[in-house]
């Protein structure tokens, strides 16, 4: 009995042992991790814009400009110049009706004449009272009254002289005089119209010192100094080249973004009308800092934490990196720290990428599409 069943028992034991090994092997087998998805992205190189190649827009103006107006009110009865006329310093440009001023002048002259006569008469009376007092004919009070009357007459004469000077000034103010040599560029009042005090009549500009005012981004204005050169181009005259030299730079930034630069136009013989826009390229000055498109930025819940995905062409993967940014202008953001020139950052699908994710570069089918 034992001899008969022994082989069966051994066979069952071997079968049980084999099943146990298979179970252990199955349990020890690890599940393979899923491969991360490969996404197609566009990248751009980190670079600094060339200051010489960055076009700016400037406006031509004259160094000396004046909006001319009468100080007082009146009727405009003479306009001796019109738009485009050249004028000389001291030339009479326009006049107000002077009839009322002439009457006031005669009245002031007559009043002053009476004051002078009264002052003379009271002066003589003062001397007479002093002589009578010396002879003992009058009391001291009479001398004091004569002295007071004479001083009052002197004061009144001074007031009347001032009044006459004011009328004469009004007479002069009734004429609009050219303060410098130049050209009339605008006329805003019509002949025989009634003008209020300070109402503009015409605009005068000099013709010998043209300037170009150029708004420059703050980061590009860093390092600029008087004497730096620039070249302007007149859009209406392709191929034109107008040399400029920097005269001054405003220390106040408009909206925190732009500073006004004042350039002198070196071509003095070139008659450019005021208000003309020129395309300006800087020849000297500090270049722009490194910059990237704003589409490359990844901003989290904390707006101070800004990141980008940097592409590694050797590994074909992207790495998430913290950066520090500066000013944003025209779709590009200046890089203060965290990136080096020549590195490539992802500009599309940033919200769907993870750190270390493999990517493929998306190739454009158009030869005109260049990622910058």
UniProtKB/TrEMBL annotation:
GO cellular component, one term: efflux pump complex
GO molecular-function term, one example from the UniProt record: efflux transmembrane transporter activity
Gene3D superfamilies: 2.40.30.170, 2.40.420.20, 2.40.50.100, Helix hairpin bin
InterPro entries documented for this protein: MdtA-like_BSH, MdtA-like_C, RND_pump_MFP
Record-annotated Multidrug resistance protein MdtA-like C-terminal permuted SH3 domain positions: 292-350
Ranges of residues in domain Multidrug resistance protein MdtA-like barrel-sandwich hybrid: 73-190
PANTHER family: HLYD FAMILY OF SECRETION PROTEINS, MULTIDRUG RESISTANCE PROTEIN MDTA
Entry's family note: Belongs to the membrane fusion protein (MFP) (TC 8.A.1) family.
Protein known as: RND family efflux transporter, MFP subunit
């Amino acid at each position: 009995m034992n001899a008969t069943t022994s082989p069966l028992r051994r066979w069952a034991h071997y079968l049980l042992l084999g099943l146990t090994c298979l179970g252990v092997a199955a349990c020890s087998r690890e599940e393979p991790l899923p491969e991360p998805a490969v996404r197609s992205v566009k990248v751009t190189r980190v670079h600094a814009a060339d200051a010489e190649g960055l076009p700016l827009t400037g406006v031509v103006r004259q160094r000396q400009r004046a909006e001319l107006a009468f100080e007082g009110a009146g009727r405009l009865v003479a306009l001796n110049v019109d738009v485009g006329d050249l004028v000389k310093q001291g030339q009479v440009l326009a006049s107000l009706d002077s009839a009322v001023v002439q009457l006031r002048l005669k009245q002031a002259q007559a009043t002053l004449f009476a004051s002078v006569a009264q002052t003379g008469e009271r002066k003589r009376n003062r001397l007479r009272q002093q002589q009578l007092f010396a002879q003992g004919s009058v009391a001291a009070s009479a001398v004091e009254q004569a002295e007071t009357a004479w001083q009052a007459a002197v004061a009144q004469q001074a007031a009347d002289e001032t009044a006459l000077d004011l009328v004469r000034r009004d007479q002069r103010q009734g004429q609009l005089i050219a303060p410098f040599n130049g050209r009339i560029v605008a006329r805003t009042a019509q002949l025989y119209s009634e003008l209020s005090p300070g109402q503009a009549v015409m605009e005068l500009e000099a013709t010998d010192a043209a300037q170009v005012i150029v708004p420059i981004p703050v980061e590009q204005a860093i390092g600029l100094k008087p004497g730096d050169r620039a070249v302007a181009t007149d859009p209406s005259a392709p191929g034109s080249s107008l040399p400029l030299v920097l005269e001054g730079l405003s220390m106040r930034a408009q909206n925190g973004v732009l500073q006004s630069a004042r350039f002198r136009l070196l071509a003095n013989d070139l008659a450019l009308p005021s208000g003309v826009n020129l395309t300006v390229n800087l020849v000297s000055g500090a270049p722009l800092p490194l910059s990237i498109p704003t589409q490359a930025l990844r901003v989290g819940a904390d707006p101070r934490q800004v990141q980008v995905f940097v592409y590694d062409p050797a590994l074909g993967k992207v790495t998430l990196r913290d950066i520090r940014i500066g000013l944003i202008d025209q779709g590009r953001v200046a890089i203060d720290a965290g990136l080096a020139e020549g590195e490539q950052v992802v500009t599309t699908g940033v919200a769907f990428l993870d750190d270390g994710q493999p990517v493929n570069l998306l190739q454009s089918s158009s030869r005109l599409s260049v990622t910058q």
